[in-house]
Amino acid sequence: MTTHLYCVLPRERRGALPLGLNGLAGEPVRALTVEGLVAWVSDVARNVPVSGDVVRTHDAVVEAALATGATPVPARFGQRFESDDACLDALRSRAGSVGSLLAGVQGLVEMTLVITPSTHRMLRDLEPVIPEMFDAAGTGAGRRYLETLRQREAATGAVKAAMDTLAAALNRAASAFVRRAAMLDAGTPLPLRTLSHLIARSDVSAYKAAVGAVSAGSDLQFLFIGPRAPYSFCALTESGGSHGMNLAD
Fold it and tell me: What are the mean pLDDT values of the chain's consecutive 10-residue runs (249 residues total)?
């Protein structure tokens, strides 16, 4: 067995672990204390396969930490150590940086906006290839459909331009509440873009009202995710990515 790291909380939250909280493979989550930090961990087999359910279980433990009232520094999924002592040693070696990161996110949460083409837009883009997709003698119609959309977008950039405009409008609407912001372009055949905003917990309702008043038009839509732990804002280094703290950074 190895030790799987979920997140880190301030030391004063060492008694906040909910009774009966289980993590990966149903193993009980436990708290390890080091320096001014508390790490939530559980035992996990070395060969646990990565799946959507496993990642969601990891995130559920992090969200349980957020529900204690403190803001955790979430660990990037998949950080496993040979033992509790090895996990503590890794945290101890970066205690100053982790502590500063932890202090900087207290009272804050992440809100994420996912921008996608609307159903109306996707149906409109589907029209030129519907006959082909329903041709029983054809092969690979789905692949050809996505390739058609990819080529069309590469030639015109219409969806990207519309997303840029909407993203700018959403950022303007959120600007009064945002402490930090991050944007990701997933680069899929049907473009998908995410905007992540670090805001105060107390501002969540006002943030949603301000951003929700933005019109996406008929071609695009945006969805709210959060409030959640600040995965996009917990890298220990500038090049550390945006999916949680990585002690190997």
Answer: 95 86 95 93 86 90 95 92 95 94 96 85 54 48 62 69 92 97 68 90 98 92 94 79 76
Give Cβ neighbours of residue 30 (< 8 Å, ≥ 6 apart).
17, 40, 41, 42
CB 79 within 8 A of CB 104: no
Q: What is the SS3 assignment for 182?
A: strand
pLDDT digits (tens, 9 = 90+) for 192-218: 788 999 999 999 999 999 999 999 988
Query: Domain with 227 in it: what CATH number?
Result: 3.30.70.600
**Three-state SS for 94?**
coil
In the numeric block, which tokens belong to residue 169? 């409008």
Q: Which of 105, 96, 115 is nearest to 168 (CA)?
A: 115
In a domain, residue 145? The reply is: no
Structure-block tokens of residue 76: 């990037």
How far apart are alpha carbons 98 and 37 in whole angstroms? 8
Q: Is residue 220 part of a domain?
A: yes
Mark whether 200 and 113 lie in a shared domain: yes
The range of the structural domain enclosing residue 197 comes to 109-122+157-233
SS (H, E, C) 115-159: EEECHHHHHHHHHHHHHHHCCCCCCCHHHHHHHHHHHHHHHHCHH
pLDDT at 154: 64
